[in-house]
Every structure is written in structure tokens, then in C-alpha cells.
Amino acid sequence: MALVTVVDDAVQLATTSALRITTLIERAVAARESAAICLTGGRTPERLYDTLADERQPWRARIDWSRIHVFWGDERHVPPDHPDSNFGMAHRTLLSRVPIPHDQIHRIEAERPDAREAARSYAAEVRDRTFDVMLLGLGEDAHVASIFPGSPLIDERSVRVAAAWAPHLRAWRITLTPPALLDARAILMMTSGATKADAVRAALELPEDVMRYPAQILRRADDRAEWVIDRAAARSLAAPPAR
Ligand code: 6PG
């Protein structure tokens, strides 16, 4: 059963998650001399990335940034300087402000004309990789990474990275698939706001229907999955977790 932590608001969501990520990084570096983190995109993590890079915060000095390898759970099919780029957002809010060696930043080359080619090359990059921290966000339709309701990728069992055409976005996405998303020592799902409340309930409480609620794949991770959600996002839970 996933651990669910409810916090007051988006600010506390960022600080609580930053502290948890710092602890997971320290543990990984102590055990393996490095830590592999897989970042998520969207709007929710922006404050977290900014908070992680904030020199006034205690974790900024606690983290040995030279030991960090950074990956992405998914990317929009756009170049890194495009406003929709998940890499671009992470670079702006975090990576340009902390001393992670350039060759340890493993971004998805989403500027490639063919999204499937970008997926193939990234599959080679993450082939044997077990992540220490897998950061995920949650869509209002209960999608995770770029695995949307009804996606054939939900049943994927071998390919670790795929290109997915998102008809509702009329756009390609490059995304890790369940085998790669779940190949992590800790999975941290962060979400906030009332618009996510139904998706949170679907993912945590409703009967299994993964094709309809892709976030339910986190149930396969058992206690490696942790949810940090704010009160607004927790409001539809039948059994609100202990705060
Ligand atoms: C992306 C993300 C996606 C995101 C959710 C939530 O590339 O958009 O990886 O899965 O986490 O859509 O997005 P928000 O945080 O913007 O609500």
C-alpha cells in the first residue's frame, strides 16, 4: 500500500518533497556513490525544482550534486528551448542553478524530427538503469508521465521508452513505459489542487481499471510508491490518510 502524506498547500508540497528527495539521494549516494533521479514535467514540480536549488534552504548544501544523474519520465516532442519543454523547465528552475556535471544530465532528444527515433535512442540510455527516485505528477484524467487513459502503453511489459501520439493534444510525447517507470527504488507522486481530487481517488481507492486510470499502475510498486498531496487534492478520498 502506498504511503500518502497530506500537506496544507503547494508550498508545503514543495518543501516536504524536497526534504524527502534529499533523504533518498543521501541514501543512494551512501549505498552506490551516485543517485539517479527521474524528473517529471508539467507545472506542479516547478516550485519543487526552484526550492531544491534555493541556496537559503538546508537541503541545497546537503545534496552532493556532483553525484547526481538526471533523467526524464517523459517529454513533449519539442526542442529544449521550446516553452513546452520539460527539459527547458527543469533547466530554468533547477539544473542551471546547481553543479550537476553536464554529462550526467540525460535529457530526451525531443528535437529529433521523428519522436519514435528519440524514444529509441533514450531507450538505449535507460536500458539497464534502476532509478533511485522516480518523480511523477498526476493528470486530471489520472494519466502519469505521458501514459494517457486507453493507451496501449499501459500493458507494455518490455519496451522501456516509447513515442505516443496523444490525439487530445494532437501531439507526440516521448515517455518511459511502466517497466521503466516502476524500475525505481522510490517513486514520489506529487500532486496538488482540487482539480486533481478525482484522479487521486481513482488512483488510490477505486477498483482496478488501469486502462481508464493509468496512475493505478503505481499499485504495482507497493510500498515503493509514496504520494505527497495537498489537502485540496485529497478532498475526495473516502478514507483521508492520517496527516
Ligand atoms: C508532462 C508530465 C505529466 C504531468 C501531468 C500533471 O509532461 O506534462 O510529465 O505527466 O505530470 O500532466 O501536470 P501538471 O503538474 O501541470 O498538472
Main sheet specs? 6 strands, parallel
Strands in their spatial order, largest beta sheet:
1-9-8-5-2-3
Task: For the record, give the distance between the C-alpha atoms at the N and C termini, rounded to a whole number.
Answer: 16 Å
Q: Could you give the count of β-strands?
A: 9
Give a brief rundown of this model.
The chain has helices spanning 10-32, 45-53, 58-62, 86-93, 115-126, 178-181, 197-204, 231-234, and strands at residues 3-7, 35-39, 68-72, 74-76, 133-136, 161-166, 171-176, 187-191, 225-230. The protein is α/β, with parallel strands linked by helices.
Kindly list the characteristics that best describe this protein.
243 residues, alpha/beta, six-stranded parallel sheet, 9 strands, 19% strand
Q: Can you give a write-up of this model?
A:
The structure is a single chain. The protein is α/β, with parallel strands linked by helices. It is built from eight helices and nine strands. The chain has helices spanning about 10-30, 45-55, 60, 85-95, 115-125, 180, 195-205, 230-235, and strands at about 5, 35-40, 70, 75, 135, 160-165, 170-175, 185-190, 225-230. The strands form two sheets. The chain has a six-stranded parallel sheet. A three-stranded antiparallel sheet has the order 4-7-6. α7 links the parallel β8 and β9 (about 225-230). α1 (about 10-30) packs across α2. The two termini are about 15 Å apart. Bound molecules: 6-phosphogluconic acid. 6-phosphogluconic acid binds near residues 41, 42, 137 and 144.
